[in-house]
């Protein structure tokens, strides 16, 4: 093509930056024609990086996307300045000439070499760049030309800039963790509802917490399976993912994930408050269960409702899947506060238990064992372990950060499994009830006529009981 003037280069590369952006970043997309952009009324606008037209900026869905375009334009200008000021290739070996590929600047590169450069920040449309560096690749062939994937079109490999495969694997792991919790929680909830001896306040608390954990797991599984995995599978060139369509269905489901997550925190707080009151103030007046129901189910609805209104007004895009800082604290603060209170409850409960054991002069080693067992058992019930994954570090190495995410998903997804295991399947009262039911079942199986006889006796007994009561 030969040399072109720098002003024309600036306009053309800026227009190309616009043209290469994905469809979902635009409200109304302009057409690319050389160094100009054309709107639906066939009006032309010069893509001038020094004077961004308000009409062009208004074509983006948000200011964030417009800023990404501006970053690309300025990077192209900087590339031109660097290419014109850098000395020519001095080696006798053959090379591929310096170039701007539409997103990134590439210097003169020796033939047969795979050039690598850190991925530019302006290509991360929907989020921040990864905390660890990732590299784009461009192959310089032995014939002194850049690799072309299609005839006449040089190719740069940007696929490695993303973390698609890694995110997919983590998402499958997260879904699997919650599935394990669902499988564990459903029988536990049925047991607590079926057996009448478990209709006591402490088991009512367990039933509500288990139900909240179950519903949270279900909506997380559905949201990640239907929306997030679909987002990861969709062709980036079509931009037809459900999140980009921003429909009401995915917004409702996302709000439900926020709501049921908060209900689990509130019911963990209720568990902590109830047990603390039971142990520390054994003779205190029983708290009305309505207070717990309001705390566990109603208060999260109010808080999440406020958050949903703000999302609709301030950032109604991509099914609200992106954070809305600083308004995320509307949801985060109550959750963290419940954990803080539960940590205080736990410390005081352990203190009271140790004092009571010392009062009866038990062995000191046994005291510590009992305290440790109580602490380990109450950790998942009170949710104190969630402190470990409340905040995601951003300064870790790639491998370490990926390991942390798996740890976070394990802690989060398997909580339902842990509380069901500790407070249902390993609960002595539950095991006794199940054992008695099993023994009765085996007896009925061994005596074929037993069922009919038992039914008659039960009716006779009930009739006698009613007659006795009426005669009093």
Q: Mean pLDDT, as a whole number?
A: 82
Helix content: 55-70%
- The geometry reads as elongated
Q: What is the domain tally? A: 4
**Portion in strands:** 5-15%
- By DSSP, the count of extended strands is 11
Assign the CATH superfamily of the largest domain: Rhodopsin 7-helix transmembrane proteins
Strand order of the largest sheet: 1-2-3
Cα distance spanning the termini: 110 Å
The CATH topology of the largest domain corresponds to Rhopdopsin 7-helix transmembrane proteins
Helices and strands, in order, run as HEEEHHEEEEEEEEHHHHHHHHHHH
Low-pLDDT segments = 451-472
Radius of gyration: 32 Å
Please work out how many helical segments DSSP would assign.
14
What would you note in describing this structure?
It contains 14 helices and 11 strands. With 472 residues, the protein is mostly helical. It folds into 4 domains: 1-85, no CATH class; 89-162, Irregular (Hormone receptor fold), CATH 4.10.1240; 164-426, Rhopdopsin 7-helix transmembrane proteins; 435-471, no CATH class. Helix 7 packs parallel to helix 9 (329-359). Residues 451-472 have low confidence and may be disordered.
